[in-house]
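Ticket #4471: structure output looks truncated?

Reporter: J.K.
Steps to reproduce: submitted the chain below (220 residues) through the standard prediction queue, then opened the result file.
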Amino acid sequence: MRLTGRTAIPAATLVAFLLSTAPARVHPHVFAEARLDVVLDQDGTIVKSLRHLWRFDDVFSSTVVMEFDKNGDLKLDDSELKDVSDTIYKSLAEFGYFQIVTVDGKDVPMKPPAQLMANYENDQLIVLFESEPKDPLKLSGKVEFGVYDPTFYTAIDFIEDEYMQVANLPASCSRTVIRPDPDEAIAQNQATLTEQFFDDPSGTDMSKIFATKLELVCKA
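Returned output as attached by the reporter:
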């Protein structure tokens, strides 16, 4: 994974690629390799922010170029990249920017990112953004961080455990990357999975049970 930190077709098409919720499309059509960095304060007791990097597959990336390459030079200049980032930023707002944060199983509200940056390198679209908890998030108990698309349309994958990191983690905390087995996840959550989920998983928020998560367990 190489980590770094527009057109006649309407920009809305990009939204459809990222956020289609049609039941017939309940499997990934877009693929991205991801990195997540959890940033702590100087004392290592408070989560300050989450830094996300997503690198999209060549096919989807080329589609973005075709849609946003206004001057037809087969690349994306700064103004075209801004159009891409603005479109994705607005589109992902409804879905919490595909991120999930919980403390002892309870959702943690996150602020919208101040901005989202898009880049195009080596024929791949790269998206970067940083978000912060709405309230101070103390590193205590079981804190989990994950990324998932509730529509199942975009598969965001952490290829290696090292792509989910937290620098300067206190010695009182353990770090584990959890990769749920889909069949086991369904079996373990059978009691809470409704008929609606099986008819159309994209219409519920239960897809997060399949998300790869960074789990931090900290002793008081």
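Triage note (M.O.): checked the attachment and the full token line is present. Residues 37 and 165 are 5 Å apart (CA to CA).
Status: closed, working as intended.
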